[in-house]
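re: the backbone from monday

yeah here it is again, tokenized this time
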């Protein structure tokens, strides 16, 4: 008897648990930073799962791993994906869930014998989390890399991307050949955990993403005068940290005057030099991470932060300089795909909410190549980038089936029949 097509959730759950053990330390945090031993082991495991499913494996010049179904190198594909790399001590789902759901969609479609007008791809993008700057794999596919970008990419310990890839026997410059022509991709869909509290607090299973935040990240330095903490009167100090303290107090004002409800600004790292308890700090270095879903708002915020830093530096006799570490433009998801995901969620009777993404994703890079959509599932208590990151199994299953049905409408030769009926087949482990 025929029945509505659904993912093999037990198999997907086994994959999530198996992958979560790769790179896991005793504190339960996962360490699969790009081109680390954990990342290599995770990639080997993912390749083995692709091969076990009887799907084609392809690795491009940026080390992106592709699972492919019905590939002929002629028709544009429907692509799904995310990343298997993690932040240090990360959780089991950030990025990984989107890759595994993509793989499960391909397996389900293959086993159901669905005829496709577009091939399917599930991709593990390289270094989304930013050991060498972030979003390397999707930027390669989008043609956003240059030889200079590749040559200059290095991690916080000074290891270059070229060195890291060479340790795996890879040529970093081969990433320039990973570029895909826009007409080779019909659409891109990414499932991801929200990484925030909105869905969980509202008890909603599905987020339909309509925009993805852009960001700029600066390394800021305020230079004053190093001096003795006991012998230098307060009114004679040129204290670089006091400049940071004043600037930090201005952040909310700047956001209120120049930002939007979607604006965010964070100082996440501070370093004082010389860093002694009995010394007035002569230099204060800090990071500034600013985000919004609107490009003009981001430009206005950059101008406002720059003016504020310049003004307080002059007033306090400090020198001020900064380096731009990264700039990622915001992206609006394709309206047609947003509506397709929304309509599909309604047909599947899934409670859903339209919302922006406050985190950067490979999807916003792919949006420069093809029409792009995203599906969010809740993060319990909004936690992510930590060992306590988790999503309820039933929400994972709902999100996976929504991704499956959305992809079928994009790729199946007879989408209506594919959604309604599935040929009974023996389950594969």
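seq for it, each position gets an aa:
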């Amino acid at each position: 008897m025929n029945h509505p097509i659904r993912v093999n959730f037990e198999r997907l759950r086994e994959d999530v648990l198996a992958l979560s053990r790769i790179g896991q330390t005793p504190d339960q945090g996962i360490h699969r930073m790009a081109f680390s031993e954990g990342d290599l082991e995770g990639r080997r495991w993912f390749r083995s799962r692709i091969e076990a499913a009887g799907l084609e494996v392809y690795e491009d010049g940026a080390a992106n791993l592709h699972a492919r179904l019905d590939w002929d190198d002629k028709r544009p594909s429907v692509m799904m994906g995310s990343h298997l790399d993690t932040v240090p001590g990360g959780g089991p789902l950030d990025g990984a869930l989107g890759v595994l759901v993509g793989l499960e969609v391909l397996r389900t479609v293959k086993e159901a014998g669905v005829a496709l007008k577009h091939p399917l791809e599930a991709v593990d993008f390289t270094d989304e989390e930013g050991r060498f700057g972030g979003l390397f794999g999707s930027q390669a596919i989008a043609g956003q890399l240059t030889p200079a970008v590749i040559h200059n990419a290095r991690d916080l310990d000074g290891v270059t991307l070229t060195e890291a890839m060479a340790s795996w026997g890879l040529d970093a410059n081969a990433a320039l050949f990973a570029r895909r022509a826009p007409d080779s991709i019909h659409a891109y869909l990414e499932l991801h955990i929200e990484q925030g509290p909105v869905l969980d607090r509202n008890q909603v299973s599905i987020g339909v993403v309509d925009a993805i935040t852009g960001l700029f990240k600066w390394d800021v330095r305020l230079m004053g005068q190093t001096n003795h903490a006991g012998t230098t009167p307060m009114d004679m100090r040129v204290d670089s940290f006091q400049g940071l303290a004043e600037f930090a107090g201005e952040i909310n004002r700047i956001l209120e005057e120049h930002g939007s409800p979607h604006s965010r600004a964070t100082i996440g790292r501070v370093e004082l030099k010389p860093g002694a308890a009995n010394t007035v700090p002569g230099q204060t270095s800090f990071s500034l991470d600013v985000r919004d879903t609107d490009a003009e708002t981001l430009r206005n915020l950059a101008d406002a932060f720059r003016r504020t830093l310049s003004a307080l530096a002059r007033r306090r006799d400090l020198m001020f300089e900064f380096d731009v570490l990264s700039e990622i433009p915001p992206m609006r998801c394709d309206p047609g795909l947003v509506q397709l995901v929304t309509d599909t969620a309604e047909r599947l009777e899934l409670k859903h909410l339209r919302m922006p993404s406050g985190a950067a994703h490979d999807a916003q890079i792919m949006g420069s190549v093809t029409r792009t959509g995203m599906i969010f599932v809740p993060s319990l208590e909004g936690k992510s980038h930590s060992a306590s990151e988790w999503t309820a199994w039933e929400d994972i299953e709902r999100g996976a089936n929504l991704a499956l049905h959305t992809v079928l409408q994009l790729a199946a030769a007879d989408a209506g029949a594919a959604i309604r009926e599935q040929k009974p087949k023996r389950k594969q482990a």
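The longest helix spans residues 295-315. Confidence is low (pLDDT under 50) at residues 422-429.
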